[in-house]
Specification:
two-stranded antiparallel sheet; 6 strands; single chain; four-stranded parallel β-sheet; alpha/beta; 20% strand; 40% helix
Length: 188
């Protein structure tokens, strides 16, 4: 059995749509499909992404002097992270280096996307998901317009929706708010 779990990018929903024989259950935690743009914004998006790529490859992120410094840096980029949640992410996502610790993620993940789907294309993918979907929406999660969320959630044929108190990182800051719901859903 394979479960698709993906938070923000929507990759799991797309995988579930194009490989329905592979994905038996889909959990979406504060992410309801990929980001979209109107078609007319595509040229400007590509130009912005290419410019950012040129800038990034001319400079490398400096390492952090210590694990504690990396935790502080991670907390600056995630408003709802607790120190414990940030530490967990940093311990999993860094490696020792000569000058301290360095984040292991692919630096290209921080770049803007070269392209995005249109909202119509996103909805086509979501309508193609045939497995049961659990959508967990933290009340303090990403600020996405309600009409977009409603259309996207309405595209799933078999949807189980749960709202919880918390922010985008609720699974790290308050795992007790989501763990039982997810476990029960995955158990079928």
């Amino acid at each position: 059995m394979f479960w698709a779990w993906r938070r923000l990018s929507g990759g799991a929903a797309q995988t579930a749509a194009v490989a329905p024989e592979t994905v038996q259950r889909l959990v979406l935690l504060d992410g309801f499909g990929p980001l979209s743009d109107p078609a007319e914004e595509a040229p400007a998006r590509l130009a912005k992404a290419l410019e950012a790529e040129c800038r990034q490859f001319s400079a490398e992120d400096p390492p952090c002097r210590s694990l504690e410094a990396a935790v502080k840096a991670r907390m600056r980029s995630g408003a709802d992270l607790t120190p414990q949640g940030a530490r967990l992410l940093v311990e999993r996502g860094t490696e020792p280096c000569d000058d301290g610790v360095r984040f292991r993620h692919d630096p290209r993940l921080k770049l803007p996307s070269r392209t995005r789907l249109t909202e119509e294309q996103v909805l086509a993918f979501l309508r193609g998901v045939v497995c049961p979907v659990l959508a967990i929406r933290p009340r303090g999660g990403w600020p996405v317009p309600e009409d977009i969320i409603s259309r996207r959630l309405g595209a799933f044929a078999d949807l189980h929706k749960v709202e919880v108190e918390g922010g985008h990182h609720v699974h790290l800051t308050h795992p007790e708010r989501v763990e039982q719901t997810i476990a029960e859903f995955l158990a079928g």
